[in-house]
Amino acid sequence: MLTIPSISGLRAFEASCRYLSFNQAAEELNVTPGAVSRQIHSLEQFLGKTLFHRHHKRIELTAVGRQYLAEINLPLEKISAATNRLRSEPRRNVISICAYPTFAIRWLIPRWAALYDAFPDLDIQLTTSLNPADFDEQNFDISIDVMTMGSSRKGCQIDKLLDVETYPVCSPELAKEITSFNDLNKVTLLHESPRPTDWQRWAAAADISGLDTSRGMNFESANMALHAAIEGLGVVIGIDALVQEDIKKGRLVKLFSVTRVSHFPFQLVTQNRTAMHPKLQAVRQWLLEQAGVKN
């Protein structure tokens, strides 16, 4: 008889090992950090061993955890490869999209119903990941990545989807206390781990001196940092395309007129071998039109 623990527990363990973070593993698996922690705990109970040392703001593998990872990693990779091979066989009317979690939550999901209305005959699947899609290993049709202008990927077509335009945002209540750049020294600056230099780069664009851009609160994801800003905890650098809805609905306020445009826009990536498939091409064009891109 096979002795196999919960697959969800193994997925949570493998993702947590890669990031050494329950929060980032949760982002990838599209669950809460608490769910990942519970899955790891259940796996440890099943094994009767401790797999991670839990510290205040980090985790690290125990010796047993490192050994277990080494022993199960290859079998898990084989299962993943076999699954991808089966999934890559001809499928009817399936389009798979991979995107960063915050982009998916704040830009794609609000348009998901309209996307289904536009293509009722398609099964459009969404996967979120903090890493760019690996088309050689993963069976995605479209990936939305942050890449420098002029980037190229072997065997892929790349279209600019949206500029990454950044500026400070905060709750309407906190905005009443901020009338000048100097007032930023009196409030908490909010930071997101995937974009650690946003405050520094925006301050340089605004020609602000004397602002300690390293202080404040840090969050594992942009979405968490934006929610903290909405709750009035401080000021965060927002990406225009991802905060427009919150600004329109009065949950966030744009501070100042200075906007920094990054050299790393959101780019829509498709494989050359499938890019011209009629259904995929139609979805690609729809996404570009939603972003205001005119071909």
List keywords for this structure.
12 helices; 3 domains; 295 residues; five-stranded mixed beta sheet; D-Maltodextrin-Binding Protein, domain 2; globular; Arc Repressor Mutant, subunit A
Question: What does this molecule look like?
Answer:
With 295 residues, this protein is α/β, with parallel strands linked by helices. The chain folds into three domains: 7-87, Winged helix-like DNA-binding domain superfamily/Winged helix DNA-binding domain (Arc Repressor Mutant, subunit A, Orthogonal Bundle), CATH 1.10.10; 94-164 and 264-290, D-Maltodextrin-Binding Protein, domain 2, CATH 3.40.190.10; 165-261, Periplasmic binding protein-like II (D-Maltodextrin-Binding Protein, domain 2). It is built from twelve helices and 13 strands. The N and C termini lie far apart (58 Å). The model has no long low-confidence stretch (mean pLDDT 90). It is globular, with a radius of gyration of 21 Å. Helix 1 crosses helix 2 and helix 1 packs across helix 3 (33-47). The strands form three sheets. Strands 7, 8, 9, 10, 11 and 12 form a six-stranded mixed β-sheet that branches. It has a five-stranded mixed β-sheet with strand order 4-3-5-13-6. The protein has helices at 7-19, 22-29, 33-47, 63-87, 101-108, 112-118, 172-175, 198-205, 222-230, 240-248, 272-275, 278-290, and strands at residues 52-54, 59-61, 94-99, 123-128, 142-146, 156-162, 165-170, 189-192, 217-219, 235-239, 253-254, 260-261, 266-271.
